[in-house]
């Protein structure tokens, strides 16, 4: 059987995939698929423990989001992280909120996120991420942006 692919350093397996293989369905992998939720009873202590060696911060405008509750819910679901210290609950009649998230990125790396949200006409979100490794931080910020 011929695969139609040329084996090389990036695809050494190319010759073992015959043309007669059924087509696979598209598979979407989200950030949440790489993170396991972890509860941190004391977020600030965990934040300090991870340290700031691999800390990065970016600010985003969420132009399609009109409420803090929606921004918080979407962030928790999209990132697949555990909201700490009941920070997933937004108080009534507030235009600012801080969301604290914790998880373990594949490979066993703690990842912590502090999102400061401001509601004016739309929601602005300042995301600060910390981990013991740089890759989880980069992936979180790239996925939000």
TrEMBL record:
Positions of the Coatomer subunit gamma C-terminal domain: 32-144
One Pfam family here: Coatomer_g_Cpla
Matching InterPro entries: Coatomer/calthrin_app_sub_C, Coatomer_g_Cpla, Coatomer_gsu, TBP_dom_sf
PANTHER family: COATOMER SUBUNIT GAMMA, COATOMER SUBUNIT GAMMA-1
The protein, known as: Coatomer subunit gamma-1 isoform X1
